[in-house]
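Model: You mentioned two targets. I'll fold them one after the other.
Researcher: Yes, keep them separate.
Model: Target one:
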Amino acid sequence: MRSGNVAQRFGGAQVSKRALSDSTESMHPVTVGALFVLQTFHVLFLSLHDWIPLGNLNDPKAVRATIPGHKLLAATLISTAPFAFGLAASTVYLAKPYPSWLLNWLGISYAILFLGELQAWWIPYLFLPKPARAARYQAMFGGTHAFLPVKRDKAEYAARDPSHWDARHLVCVSRADGAGG
């Protein structure tokens, strides 16, 4: 079997090379290059943002004060690994069309990243607050630049979920007594 015969490698099925990698072949080279640069930036930022100060975008000292160094290193390696692998594979195929497995890898890994961001940041911020997580994030990221307004009103959090009526009532009572903040 010749290594260049795609149909034989796929059990005799009539699969062309074009069908396997049509997505990047049809993209403009500048687009592929721009996506590669963004991917590189993402991997660098993901791997370094908890370790190297980046002005008011991060606070590595606060992060390390909240999370022990060995746990932070493990979390950095685990969270960076799939994207570093994707970047390495993208580097290998930069001058040629990406194979379908690489497109799938990149699509799935970035979709999982997006879902993780929704779960960790956006859903708690917009709909379902998690006070313990918010306190931990405040300790780690309180000194950084805020892109969205800080939600400090406890009654606003409690009002979103009727099961927290008692908490909302206590906040309102404590404010009426002058004890609330």
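Model: Target two:
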Amino acid sequence: MKVALVAGVAHRLGPAYAQARELAARGYHVILGSSERGAAELLSAELRAEGLSATPMRLDLRDAAGCAEVAAEVHRRFGRLDALVVEEGRHGARLRAALGPLLDAVPA
């Protein structure tokens, strides 16, 4: 199963959640990253209730150490990353840098 990390998932009406839902519907295991852990857990549970594959993960793009922890967790649990959805800019760049080798196969 392909694995996607979608950052910035805070509520059902946001564009990140719509993209996460689309990827999950296409057969990806979706990691929902949000600085609000409760929101990621709720949205992940909703996707799983629909038979889709999702995992919540606390992710604050402003925190370099936190990005590194997420990268390590993704590597440990999944060993791969096939898609990354994150707004560009300094925060997106921080996450891309932390994910490093996992992103080799992911188009920019």
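Researcher: Noted. Anything on target two?
Model: The chain has four helices and four strands.
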